[in-house]
Amino acid sequence: MREYIDGATAIVRGAIDAGCSFFAGYPITPASGILMQMMRELPRTGGVAIQGEDEIASIGMCIGATLAGHLAMTATSGPGISLYSENIGLAVMGEVPLVIVDVQRLG
After folding, report:
1. Around Cβ 24, how many Cβ atoms within 10 Å?
2. For residue 23, which of 13, 49, 57, 88 is within the disulfide window of CB 3.0 to 4.6 Å?
3. Could you read off the pLDDT tens digit of each residue along the chain, which spans 107 residues?
4. Domains delineated in the chain
C-alpha cells in the first residue's frame, strides 16, 4: 500500500531511521514543519529536539551534540543558512559531521 507524505515527514522519518538522536532548529518557513515534527517524534525514540533562540544557537547546539557523540541535525531556509555560515566553517575546520537541511523557498 502506498502512502503519500510531504517532504518534511520524509526528512524526519529518514533522519530518525538513520539514527539521528539530536535536533535543534528555529522556526522559519518552510522548514518549520521539520522542527515541529522532530519535536514530536524524536523524544519518542529517546532523542532530544530543541527549539533554539535563533539560528546561530541552533547550529551551535548541533555542533556540541555531535562532539558529545550524537548524530545531530538542523533545518533552516534561505536567510537562516546565511546565519549558519560561521558555524559551518567551525564544523568544517573541526571535522565535525552535521546534517543540515536547507529547505528552498518558492519563487
Report:
1. 25
2. 49
3. 899 999 999 999 999 999 999 999 999 999 999 999 999 999 999 999 999 999 999 999 999 999 999 999 999 999 999 999 999 999 999 999 999 999 998 87
4. 7-102 (3.40.50.970)
